[in-house]
Design a protein that fits this description.
single chain, 189 residues, alpha+beta, eight-stranded mixed β-sheet, globular, DUF6934
Length: 189
């Protein structure tokens, strides 16, 4: 996966919208070997269980069952165009759902760090459209130890501390975030 992604909403693939609510779309990306690969973009119809108004945004090629394979490793000819297309679709979704937030979950630490770097490296451009935040998923287990996991689970003890992403946000792996949340800037609504 490339690190030097430059987001530009004027350099995108043609996207096929599959739902009136903008929750499903697809486009074809070109790979470095010249072949084409379909990518699916899906926005969950259900809000995140612990974060009201946050809807998960997933993307990737379809697997054998037609579901998104978010662990696939494709070699895109133009990573900038791929991620610009996904984020332009996210912006279009948020325009018709301004009260919603979108969340992107890194399927593993490498992807999560790459997404974070993309956001930081494109902060000036993205911040003109979106307010952005990040969080680490973690559960406080030191308080009750293994008994914390007995049923019923105390979901109030999960602390998803959202951190606003700014131009000064740390760039090191010490600040590894797993989930990135964004919505339209209030002056864009």
């Amino acid at each position: 996966m490339a690190i030097s992604v430059k987001i530009n909403f004027n350099n995108v693939y043609d996207i096929n919208i599959a739902s009136n609510e903008m929750t499903s779309a697809s486009f074809e990306t070109e790979l470095i070997d010249g072949s084409k690969e379909k990518l699916i973009v899906e926005i969950s119809p259900e809000a995140h269980e612990l974060m009201p108004n946050v809807y998960n945004l997933a993307f990737g090629p379809p697997d054998v069952n037609g579901e998104i394979d978010d662990k696939a490793q494709l070699k895109h000819k133009d990573y900038s165009k791929v991620f610009s297309t996904i984020l332009l679709h996210a912006q279009a979704y948020l325009t018709i759902h301004p009260e919603h937030y979108l969340g992107i979950d890194g399927s593993d630490n490498s992807r999560a760090f790459l997404y974070y770097r993309f956001i930081l490296n494109n902060f000036g451009y993205l911040s003109s459209y979106f307010s952005m935040g990040a969080l680490k998923y973690y559960v406080r287990i030191t308080r009750f130890g293994k008994y914390q996991y007995e049923n019923p689970f105390d979901f109030q003890d999960i602390m998803p501390g959202l951190v606003k992403i700014t131009r000064e946000s740390p760039r090191s792996l010490d600040f590894m975030y797993n989930y990135f949340i964004f919505n339209l800037r209030k002056d864009k609504n």
